[in-house]
Predict the structure.
Amino acid sequence: MKITLNSPLDMHVHLRDGEMLNNVAPYSSKCFAGAIVMPNILPPVTTLEELKAYKNRILKAIGEDKFEPYMTLFFKNNWTYEFLKEAKHFIKAVKLYPSGITTNSENGVSDFKIENLKPTLEAMSDLNIPLLVHGETNGFVMDREKEFGVFYKKIALAFPKLKIIMEHITDRNSVKLLKEIDNLYATITLHHLLLTFDDVAGGKLKPHLFCKPIAKRYEDKEALLELALNAYPKIMFGSDSAPHPQNKKESNECAAGIWTAPIALPALCELFEKYNKLDNLQKFVSDNAQNIYNFKPIEKKVVLEKGEFLVPEKYNNVVPMFAGKKLSWKCN
Amino acid sequence: MKITLNSPLDMHVHLRDGEMLNNVAPYSSKCFAGAIVMPNILPPVTTLEELKAYKNRILKAIGEDKFEPYMTLFFKNNWTYEFLKEAKHFIKAVKLYPSGITTNSENGVSDFKIENLKPTLEAMSDLNIPLLVHGETNGFVMDREKEFGVFYKKIALAFPKLKIIMEHITDRNSVKLLKEIDNLYATITLHHLLLTFDDVAGGKLKPHLFCKPIAKRYEDKEALLELALNAYPKIMFGSDSAPHPQNKKESNECAAGIWTAPIALPALCELFEKYNKLDNLQKFVSDNAQNIYNFKPIEKKVVLEKGEFLVPEKYNNVVPMFAGKKLSWKCN
């Protein structure tokens, strides 16, 4: 059995930089036609010069693959309309991080007053640039996304024409918001469709399944599955594939992030097949995103075939999700 | 400044076996007059022969220190009155584990029907042998202790003369049960007085702070603190100090357990001093336990002194809580 995906897209990926970029980017570029690239490298991508240079490093890392890196800037609250108008030629979106909430987000937003965000968000709204948000407060770790709901609501209502994408949603409260408020959209990761917090810490503690936002309860996973399997039009696949070297994961201070790039599409096939929803996969991994972002990716056919895929224990120094396990689909 | 504790007791400790026993036991025997020793070694201690042999290995490991290991058996639901009557000469309590809930608990109880537990529990009740319980279901990891509440209640009401000790409580629901039901008692660890789940996974993931039951919410920690700082008569200190080699903690599958033996009393002094409750420490670390278990430990004065204690990064291959940090009290 085979299925052919037309221009699958990863609408949220961390390609990192330097040696890690060279190691991981080819696994995204092999199976996807394009990906929204997160800007939280060090230093975060806040200027067009940095952005162009980073894009060049990415293109070099992926080599010959037919793949478009869709660039994003790290949100600043004082950008002018003119800057963003110029930026729009080079970016697909702007990514907003609350300060200190995940890897390299120290320079993020610490105050969500509308008046503080207004200069940038008003211009983005006028220019139709989507705002991508890592939606977590600095509250108790299991409540952070739920607590952030008030900010999603506040921003969405203050800028009703701004497309706001709730990135990597994990909480059933976000699903409720998505359905309630017109200009809220969302990405969902593979791992949040598969894991609850029990998988991370219910038995032994699994650092390679530790990510932010942390995996939640069974009810939360069910709510996400229901959206994804039915390819709800306001959601898109975004892997949040986030590699760290093995020694940063299996250490006394494990960095947050699950690396799924090489296994994402096979595992999605397995999941959608299990629920007899393979027909919806094309929408989830590409069509919905094209509609939400209003763009056409490059043409690229990606064939997935039923058959054993023994996931390597590591790819150089990075351990993937499902390391050493067998998947029942593989990328051709 | 100095304080002298009379016969401090650790009412829940894992001394392990073999090389690990030899490494860790001296840190319990140095500062405590005695400790309730958990029986979940491999194989679990279920016979008196095993128990006597294990006790001898412990005594050998601690050498010259004045210290009593109070032995426990791993609960079996088919013991006779005669067996337990004989056992009573050698044990202080029996420890019940739900099956598969923590380290080496695979042979624990999987069915909490009163009729199944009755042979052993009735005899224990008649013989006045305390029942120590690891109170977690196999439900969602954050809910396990709360869910176990129905079993605590059921067993406590079915055997009203049996002293039941809810080990290492972490959930405010257990505090409520403790206050409601006469024959329920509890131990509280140091780490659950200091940590919430945010400390374990709110920033980076900290394998050395991962334990079962997992640290919970701020409200839970506050409820435990209120009991401990006021030396509520039905609670006792039990460290649940549970060493694992560093390579089993900083790995792709981190074992549950925090090793606090060498830092427990200094950290308790620091904590009780912070809340201006040092006067209650003697009760929390010894007197309450003597009343609940109705016994007299050996006489041993342990002096703690105000002064910098730089906690070693490791003790051989085991990383303690507060590794590399400074405490403001030390054991003399």
Remarks:
- Chain A has a mean pLDDT of 97.
- Residues 198 and 217 of chain A are 8 Å apart (CA to CA).
- Chain A has one domain: 2-331.
